[in-house]
Write a structure and sequence with these properties.
globular; 4 strands; three-stranded antiparallel sheet; mainly alpha
């Protein structure tokens, strides 16, 4: 700790390896706490290490990171643990901007975004309540003042893509350096840090998400006050600064602001979003107005209770079980109250399943599959195990309520709507459902709306293929996830190339996972547990295997889209 404190006010590139490692590992810890996959955590740590002239090798699991960093002269290993995990897409987005901001401050060009002015404004103004508005305003000022902004943006795009290629090659070189340094540190020369003289004249779009909070892996002596690094004129796009333009303390203070950001939505609004999402989910599963009403009430109350419990750091599994039981009872109570006036409502025994779909852990299910696709089996297996543990607790809670109030869920009654009307309503319901789940993941509103548009198109297509062309649910899920991955890639590429406003460049994972969470077969899983509780093993296995086949097809669809559009996924590097 003494060497970190000694170099705390030194420029980053001049600081000791321990001080640099404290930044690299802390960014990885924040990214991991956001719920993203281990492949992305390692990628982000490489992005942070590259402008510092550091090679990093990290073992990332569900709640811990072991990272070894070397600058060719010294080597240090640091380990951090998280007490829990969660999902926060806003932090993922902000950390992307932090990576570009740090790169520019260290004299390198940005990687994630061509217009680094967006990253500069977001990170420099994190302590402002209207930080997103400030970033959008800065982009408009740059484009309005500079008549050559369009040409500058194209040059910046080329620079960013070139810099990304350099970092990918640097990761390959790092593997060889790790092998050579295993025997001794003195055999490795200094780490190359190619300077880009052109810089990044204008900046690209916004990006990345915030995440579930976790403990900070920071060193001692970090200031509590958010000191702002010296910034250039906000009306002009920043050039890469001289090497060492920001201190270790200033970088940690920016990370303090990212880590300590409060959730974007209150527990009450989160409950409303959950109610909307589950009501829409029930309609997509075939439910009618009474089913949707019961799910709306139950899911809203259940999510509000869960947010209150998680805000007090109560154990996740206990909070999930309590929230599920409360949501199911609230749904059943609502329908029985309505049944006093209309006895038809009493026949909707399956609605309670829709009320507890808000606890389905879609994010770890999908990211676990993505980790396995990147051959990171320890992290992938841990994530999937965690997801199935949450599902087990939730389904047991739902089964317990069904036994208490003597429910017998046999599916939803058909509504017999015309095909065109059904397609239109599915489009609306899918949009609302994905928007609701995006809010639960703490996505900013613009990010949630983009994900909702992608989800509306893909989920409607999936259901229509099943109805019209009789495509098996597993194949339809694969095609829906594949289309979601392609649309997210097109969106991000359009932002990078100036076809869409720069502040709309969100991370793919923040768009794809919310858009396909609504495809997770929660109804299948709950029915499997219901039949298992009745010792009807044949039906339980039938529904369980149906759910399993759909679940594994979702990450496969995303991986296929990523392999076709991303070179780092197409090749094993």
């Amino acid at each position: 700790m003494e060497d970190i404190e000694r170099d705390y006010d030194k420029p980053i590139v001049e600081a000791c390896i321990a001080a640099k490692t404290s930044l690299i590992v802390r960014v990885g810890m924040l990214e991991l706490g956001a719920g993203t996959g281990s492949f992305r955590v390692r990628e982000m740590m490489h992005r942070i290490a590259y402008p510092m002239g550091v090679h990093v090798r990290a073992d990332v699991n569900l709640t811990d990171i072991e990272a070894t960093c070397t600058d060719g002269v010294s080597r240090i290993t640091e380990v951090v643990d998280l007490p829990t995990t969660g999902v926060n897409t806003e932090r993922i987005w902000l950390l992307e901007h932090f990576a570009d901001w740090l790169s520019v401050k260290c004299g390198q060009a940005g990687t994630y975004h061509a217009m680094t002015v967006v990253s500069r404004e977001l990170v420099d103004n994190l302590d402002e309540p209207n930080v997103y508005a400030a970033a959008r305003k800065a982009v408009k000022e740059v484009l309005a003042q500079d008549q050559d902004a369009a040409k500058a943006l194209k040059d910046a795009v080329a620079t960013a893509v070139h810099n990304e290629d350099e970092i990918s090659q640097n990761r390959i070189d790092a593997a060889a350096i790790d092998t050579r340094t295993a025997a001794g540190l003195g055999t490795v020369g200094s780490t190359p840090r190619p300077e880009d003289s052109k810089g990044s004249k204008d900046s690209d779009s916004s990006a990345a998400g915030s995440a579930a909070t976790g403990p900070s892996a920071t060193s001692q002596g970090r200031g509590s006050e958010a000191g702002r690094p010296a910034s250039s004129d906000k009306s002009a796009s920043p050039e890469p600064q001289a090497t060492g333009g920001i201190t270790v303390r200033q970088a940690h203070e920016r990370l303090d602001l990212i880590e300590r950001r409060k959730p974007l939505y209150s527990p009450l609004f989160s409950g409303f979003a959950s109610a909307v999402a589950c009501a829409a989910f029930v309609f997509l599963l075939g439910g009618g107005p009474y089913d949707m009403a019961g799910a709306f009430v139950g899911a809203g109350i259940g999510q509000w209770v869960r947010r209150q419990m998680l805000g007090r750091r109560i154990n996740q599994f206990f909070a999930t079980g309590v929230a599920v039981i409360i949501a199911a009872l609230a749904c059943v109570g609502t329908l029985r109250l309505v049944g006093i006036f209309d006895p038809v409502a009493l026949r909707h025994d399956t609605a309670y399943i829709g009320a507890i779909l808000f606890v389905i852990p879609g994010f770890p299910l999908v990211t676990g599959g993505l980790d396995i696709a990147k051959l990171d089996f320890p992290s992938g297996v841990q994530r999937i195990t965690y997801a199935f543990s949450i599902i087990l607790v939730a389904t047991l809670g739902g089964w317990a309520v069904a036994r208490m109030v003597m429910l017998n869920p046999q599916g939803f009654e058909p509504m017999n709507l015309s095909p065109w009307l059904m397609a239109g309503l599915r489009l609306i319901a899918a949009f609302c459902g994905v928007w609701g789940f995006s809010v639960l993941f703490n996505s900013p509103q613009r990010m949630a709306l983009v994900a909702a548009v992608i989800g509306a198109l893909t989920d409607t297509m999936r259901l229509e293929m099943q109805d019209i062309f009789h495509v098996p649910p597993e194949m339809a899920a694969f095609l829906g996830a594949f289309l979601a991955g392609m649309l997210a890639t097109v969106w991000r590429s359009s932002v990078r190339h100036g076809l869409l406003p720069p502040h709309l460049g969100y991370p793919r994972i923040s768009l794809t996972v919310p858009s396909i969470v609504i495809m997770v077969p929660g109804l299948y899983m709950y029915r499997a547990m219901f039949y298992l509780g009745q010792f009807n093993t044949l039906n339980a296995l039938d529904w369980a295997f149906r759910a399993f086949m759909v679940i594994i097809c979702l990450p496969i669809g995303l991986v296929t889209a990523r392999v076709l559009t991303d070179r780092s996924w197409r090749y094993d590097v």
